[in-house]
Design brief:
Strand order of the largest sheet: 2-1-3-4-5-6
Shape: elongated
Strand content: 5-15%
Number of helices: 11
Radius of gyration: 18 Å
Order of helices and strands: EHEHEHEHEHEHHHHHH
Structural class: alpha/beta
Helix content: 40-55%
């Protein structure tokens, strides 16, 4: 039995996928998540075999969730299922650890087979996505190093190890209370760390801090 976690910000999509996939005798839907942050949390608890991951979601998008899960639970296979076929989404998803990338117009029978293939370790790409996923490394580097992507701020090197831990949790979407619980420190201490991070990096708020962390940590 292949255990599957469904991740999509639209409940009607999750319900539809669940109904379709549960008709397959070898597939079991073990849970659902409405954004990347919840997907990470539930994946670490439920340990699904395969995650069907959307890309654009509130709080934390699919790319960030893929990156975190690839580090913390590399045994879980991630299959992107989205409506977006942008070059950047495809290359980033695959570079960060996704095992496949399909569009939501994929027939249900093909989706079920893709889940089986990904579970066995194969890569699955929807029609027309292969060329986007194998963009030459130097081309990707040129794009990611363009003027749209700022250079790594030298101030990051000046953060303490604890501040870097707090910054990484901010990037995941944790509140001060959740950070305090995760690091076993007082919420007031977390607030002090956040203020110090913002001052050191010359940032306006924690949203900017999260964006910076997702790019450079």
């Amino acid at each position: 039995m292949i255990r599957v976690l469904l991740v999509d910000d639209q409940s009607i999509v999750r319900e539809g996928l669940s109904s379709l996939l549960q008709t397959q005798a070898d597939l079991e839907i073990v849970g659902e998540a409405e954004n990347g942050k919840v997907a990470v949390e539930r994946s670490l608890v439920l340990k699904p075999d395969v995650i069907l991951m959307d890309i654009r979601m509130p709080i934390m998008d699919g790319i960030a969730a893929i990156r975190i899960l690839a580090e913390q639970a590399p045994e879980i296979k991630i299959l992107v299922l989205t409506t977006f076929d942008d070059d950047q989404y495809v290359t980033q998803a695959m570079a960060h650890g996704a095992h496949g990338y399909l569009l939501k117009d994929t027939p249900s029978s093909e989706l079920a087979q893709a889940i089986r293939s990904v579970n066995q370790g194969y890569t699955q790409l929807g029609p027309g996505l292969f060329s986007k996923a194998i963009t030459p490394q130097n081309t990707k580097q040129n794009r990611f190093n363009s003027q749209e992507t700022p250079s790594i701020p030298p101030e990051l090197a000046g953060l303490t190890n604890r501040e870097k831990e707090v910054l990484q949790l901010i990037a995941i979407g944790y509140s001060n209370r959740e950070i305090a619980a995760e690091l076993h420190i007082a919420e007031r201490t977390v607030k002090n760390h956040v203020n110090s991070i913002l001052r050191s990096l010359n940032l306006r708020d924690r949203t900017q801090a999260a964006i910076l962390a997702n790019k450079h940590l």
